[in-house]
Amino acid sequence: MTTLVLDPVGGIAGDMLMAALLHLGAPRAALDEGLRKLALPGAAVEVQEVEVAGIRAAHVEVRALAEQHPHRPWREIRELIARAALPSRAAEMAQSAFALLATAEGRIHGVDPEEVELHEVGAVDSIVDVVGSALLLHALGAEEIVALPPPAGGGTARSAHGIIPVPAPATLEVLRGRTVRESGPGERTTPTGAAMLAAWTSEVDAFPALVVDRVGYGAGTRRWEDAPNLLRAVLGQKSAAGRETVWVLEANLDDLSPQLVSVALDAVLAAGALDAWVAPVTMKKGRPGHLFGALAQGADRARVEETIFRETSTLGIRIARWERAVLDRELLEVETEYGKVRVKVGRLHGVQLNAAPEFEDCRQAAGRHGVAVKEVMAAALSAFRRPR
Q: Which alpha helices (DSSP H) does the chain contain, by range?
């Protein structure tokens, strides 16, 4: 599995992520073509090589026409991205980061996200930072993106609303459910950087086992006394049976209709849960109930948590961090008498251990041909086992 690791050594901001990805080798052409489609007047990205603590790195500066009021409502940014006809994955990533920011600002100011005016993060340079980073990540094509905890920083900073504490309120809001590590003073993690981490990555608490392919460094403008102000990006191949951190979210339900339990199960899966389950339990006073559980990666945890609260009657969710071992996985397509069916293959150290037809493919093929699902599954396994 191709994995991209983001290591915010000195912090993370939008320009630092763009710089790290370009330094890593993401194609500049993908950035320029996407920004051309975005059609922001006068917007351009300048890249130069710098040295921080003896380490060569890229530094990015976004050039844009001066704006009298450098802020925009979220809906305007959303429409701007939608009109640009960007690659679908890049557009989805950019939209998700700005949606997190709008939701965070709505909580802070007590307004509906649709009415939120994004100030610093609504300026042209911030839009270019988010969209540009999404374009470069899409072009790299990593199957998995993980990030180590970012530094908290400290002190105060000036904003459109006046002097605010650091970490900025928006930074903490978008990082709900994520770890923030102790660091020296200064704004180390910006709201934009935090939103990209929260929306696009899963959290890991240590550098994963990885066969390293490429390394890139993105430099920030400020200089810290306790750490080089660098964001490190590492691209490599995760070893077989790699381990990853996941979150288990559980709630006991004793007053929810079974029909609504089923709806909630589908909803958390749609929200990004890796898995979800319902099991019968006996609760206090002998009441029959359900244990409702979900498994989520760090990037999806907050969304899954919110969905459980919204779709069930629970007043609280138990949350625990677990480590899981995973086989190297691959989807292979086979031709059967019922059409094409994908087969999921699991390997350990290159040796195949498991193979299972994708159930939805089999179910749809069975419906088209009027046969039992098990017949399609058997045909798919038979086709997979034939020499290719």
A: 14-24, 28-38, 74-83, 88-109, 124-140, 169-174, 191-200, 258-270, 298-311, 359-369, 373-385
Same domain, 338 and 305: no
Of 3-17, 85-99, 204-218, 234-248, the least confident: 234-248
Tokens of 103: 């939701």
Same domain, 318 and 307: yes
Q: Which of 238, 261, 283 is the last residue of a domain?
A: 238
Element (H, E) at 215: strand 210-219
pLDDT tens track for 183-236: 999 999 999 999 999 999 999 888 888 889 999 999 999 999 999 999 999 999
The tally of domains found in the chain comes to: 3
Enumerate the β-bridge partners of residue 290: 253, 280
Whole-number Cα distances in Å, 99 to 21, 91, 342: 23, 12, 33
Does 338 share its domain with 315?
no
Give the burial class of 93: count Cβ atoms within 10 A of its Cβ; 0-12 exposed, 13-18 middle, 19 or more buried.
buried
Quick one: which of 302, 246, 202, 304 has its CA closest to 292? 304
How far out from the chain centre does Cα 351 lie? 30
Boundaries of domain holding 83: 2-238
pTM over 0.85: no
The residue-averaged pLDDT of 18-35 equals 96
Q: Which two tokens stand for residue 224?
A: 């810290």
Over pLDDT 90: what percentage of the chain?
A: 70
